[in-house]
Every structure is written in structure tokens, then in C-alpha cells.
Design a protein that fits this description.
The chain has about 425 residues and is an alpha/beta fold. It has four helices and 28 strands.
Length: about 425
């Protein structure tokens, strides 16, 4: 008998295999698609990250362009995008706006908004900061001693200065030792010469705006009545925390008004941390002096009439003077106390302004600039003048150039939507 074999299911096996292959293929396609989307997302995130970095670089680029262009307010059309700058695969565009009145050019004292817009691939970011103007000092504040008319140096004078000594008219030096650069608008006459002697043009130094300065100093500070002291102010500290004649001024700015040139008085053993302005009286600063200008920009001393700077050049020993020069609230080099047990140098740091003549004698350690509207006479003196850049960082009204520098307003960084 012949046996029959059981029929095989070849078609079913084929379908099973085909189904398995299709399933695996679908999984593969889905995986590829998922990885493609994931890679796309990674690419977009990377573009966004790099676009953010470009926007930050754009802000720095904008600040650099402003700093290098004195006419930047005219260069940038208000609200208009600057030409795009390309960086590799990305680009940066800049815009500046004046939100005060919509006009960048009309007022140097207006703030400005700087926006950097970056593009890279499919990503775009915009970063905005606020800039505020900071006044630029006239170059007269880059001298050690500046005379609005003539300057005389005579009678055994020793002058060592990091900065030039300048006279807007004639400069005459006799019987001296000078280690400095002497400059004049008209002539320099010397016996033995100096480090250099230069006659500069009439426009080499920018003149202070004396009228603007005189008006500005009338509006600041706290009065010290002339009747509060006699012929001198002695053993006194004037600061935002100390005023032996009344309530301290919060800015450390004080003014005294005399009754005329004959109403002269002297300063003896006086420490100023701030500003002292003297109207209508001659002033003589003698013995020990320690003056420090603060960052509000006003000069450490202003004298409307004749000023004589004649410090002794010796330190103050508090125990011998019976005077505490660094009381609580007015530290020196970070130290403050209620005891008379310290020693302090004689030194002036900042800007000293005389609206008439200035005479300098004695021993003077000057860190900053002395400016007289009229004459300067240096006689029987040993003077060391050092540069003090901080005196130019925030110049007072009348000593500012027509241009200004822009600086970032702290905390103004913010991302904005396009």
C-alpha cells in the first residue's frame, strides 16, 4: 500500500517570514526616522546655542564700534539695522535706539538701547543691553599743573612730575631742579632745561568751560557758616560722615562763603574726603593736609579767590596733634577708630581748582591735577606730582569734552523676541 505524505504549508511559512521581515523593516524605518528627528533636534539645539553665542558677540561688537567712532550717534540710523556681519555660517545685525525721544543725535546725555540679532541655520536670537553715557575729561586734566595764564618757577624749587606742566601763556623757570615736561602755548624760558620743553599750539589743550563750572558749583553741597570758625579751620575732618560745624553732607560736599578777598582764612591739619568749595575769600592750606577726592567727580578743593598750597610735607602724628584723622565713618586705608594713635601722610589726591591765582610752596605730594584759571607761582617748594587716572573717570561740569563714552548699565542684559 502506498502511503501519502501529509501536505506541507509552504504558503503559510512564506507569509510568516514575509510578515516578520516587514515588521523588522518597519522597525528599522521607524528607528531611522526617530534618529533623524532626534538628530534634527540636536542640530536645532546646537544652532540655538551658537546663535546665542553670536548674539553676545554682537553686543561686544556694537560696544567696540561705538567706542571707536566719535560720531556713532550719526553713524547709526536710529532704529535701523546695521549691515549684517557674517561669522562662518552665521550673521549678526545691530541696531541702536534712543527710547527717551527717538533721536540718537540730539543729546549726548541720552541713554541708548543696543540690540544684537544673530542668525545661524534655523535659529535666531536677539540680545539687548542698555548703555549710558559717561563723560570724557578734557585733556587739560592730563597735565600735572595747568595755568590759564603764566606760570613761574623760581627760588630753589624741585619739581618731579609724571605729567606735563603747562602754561597757556608764558612759562618761566629759574633756580630750580625739574624732572618734568614743560609746555607752553607761547614760550618756555629756562636756565638749565627740563626733561622736555615744548611750545604747543593754542588748541593743543581744551580750555575748561569756566562759566559752566562756576554755575554748577553754586548748586551743590552743605554750607559751613563763615561765623563757625575764626581765622582758621584746624584739626578737622570733612567727609560724608564728619562735619565738626554741623550736620554731615551725605555726599561730603561743603561750601564756605566769605565777605571778600580780605576775609582770608587758613586750613591747618585738615582732612577732606569729598569736596570743599570756598567763595569770595583767599585760602591758605598749611601744615598737614590729607585730601581725597571721591568718585562723584567734583574737585577736592575749589577756591574762588587766591589759593596758597603750602603744606609742611611732614606726616601727622595724631598723638602729638591731639587729633583723630580717621574717626569712625571716615577710614583711611580701611582703618577707622576713636583713638589718637595713628600716623598719616601729607598728600592731596584729586583735582584742585583755583578760579584766580595759585601759589605753591612747601612740600607737596600731589596725585592728580592742579588747575588755575589765572597764574601759577611755584616758589621755595619741593613738589612731586603723580598721575591719578581716577580724577579723569568722572570729570565735573566744565571739564568735560563734547564727546562721551558709553558703558553698560548693570543688570540690563535681556533676551528679546524678534
Amino acid at each position: 500500500m502506498t502511503r501519502r505524505s501529509a501536505p506541507t504549508r509552504r504558503g503559510g511559512v512564506y507569509l510568516a517570514v514575509a510578515g516578520t521581515v516587514t515588521f523588522v523593516t518597519l522597525i528599522g524605518v521607524a528607528g531611522i526616522a526617530w534618529w533623524a528627528r532626534a538628530d534634527d533636534r540636536v542640530s536645532l539645539v546646537d544652532d540655538q546655542r551658537q546663535a546665542a553665542m553670536l548674539a553676545r558677540a554682537g553686543v561686544e561688537l556694537g560696544i567696540e564700534r561705538i567706542a571707536s567712532d566719535e560720531n556713532w550717534r550719526k553713524t547709526f540710523a536710529d532704529g535701523g539695522w546695521a549691515d549684517a556681519t557674517t561669522f562662518n555660517a552665521g550673521s549678526i545685525s545691530l541696531t541702536l535706539t534712543d527710547e527717551a525721544d527717538g533721536r540718537l543725535e540730539d543729546d549726548l546725555n541720552d541713554n541708548a538701547k543696543l540690540r544684537a540679532r544673530s542668525k545661524l541655520g534655523r535659529a535666531a536670537r536677539s540680545l539687548e543691553v542698555e548703555l549710558e553715557p559717561r563723560p570724557v575729561a578734557i585733556n587739560a586734566l592730563s597735565t600735572g599743573i595747568w595755568a590759564g595764564r603764566k606760570l613761574d618757577i623760581d627760588n630753589s624749587v624741585s619739581v618731579v612730575a609724571d605729567l606735563p606742566i603747562y602754561a597757556d601763556h608764558h612759562l618761566v623757570a629759574e633756580d630750580y631742579y625739574i624732572d618734568s615736561d614743560l609746555q607752553s602755548c607761547k614760550s618756555v624760558t629756562t636756565e638749565r632745561g627740563a626733561r622736555s620743553e615744548t611750545v604747543v599750539g593754542p588748541d593743543f589743550y581744551t580750555q575748561p568751560d569756566w562759566d559752566a563750572f562756576k554755575e554748577a558749583i553754586k548748586t551743590i553741597g552743605t554750607e559751613i557758616p563763615r561765623s563757625a570758625f575764626g581765622s582758621r579751620i584746624q584739626n578737622a575732618v570733612l567727609s560724608s560722615a564728619s562735619n565738626p560745624f554741623g550736620t554731615p553732607d551725605p555726599d561730603g560736599i561743603y561750601w564756605i562763603s566769605g565777605s571778600g578777598p580780605n576775609d582770608a582764612f587758613s586750613l591747618r591739619n585738615v582732612r577732606i574726603v569729598g569736596t570743599l568749595i570756598v567763595f569770595d575769600a583767599d585760602v591758605r592750606a598749611e601744615w598737614w593736609q590729607l585730601w581725597e577726592q571721591t568718585d562723584n567727580g567734583w574737585p577736592v578743593l575749589v577756591c574762588e579767590k587766591k589759593l596758597t598750597l603750602s603744606p609742611g610735607g611732614i606726616p601727622l602724628i595724631e598723638l602729638l596733634a591731639g587729633f583723630n584723622a580717621n574717626p569712625i565713618g571716615t577710614p583711611y586705608n580701611g582703618e577707622e577708630d576713636n583713638a589718637n594713635d595713628d600716623t598719616h601722610p601729607t598728600r592731596i589726591t584729586g583735582l584742585v581748582v583755583g578760579l584766580d591765582d595759585i601759589t605753591i610752596s612747601g612740600g607737596l605730594d600731589m596725585r592728580g591735577t592742579i588747575i588755575a584759571q589765572n597764574d601759577v607761582d611755584i616758589t621755595w617748594a619741593a613738589i612731586y606730582v603723580r598721575d591719578e587716572p581716577s580724577t579723569r573717570e568722572n570729570p565735573p561740569v566744565g571739564f568735560r569734552a563734547e564727546t562721551s563714552q558709553m558703558r553698560l548699565v548693570e543688570g540690563s542684559w535681556r533676551w528679546v523676541a524678534d
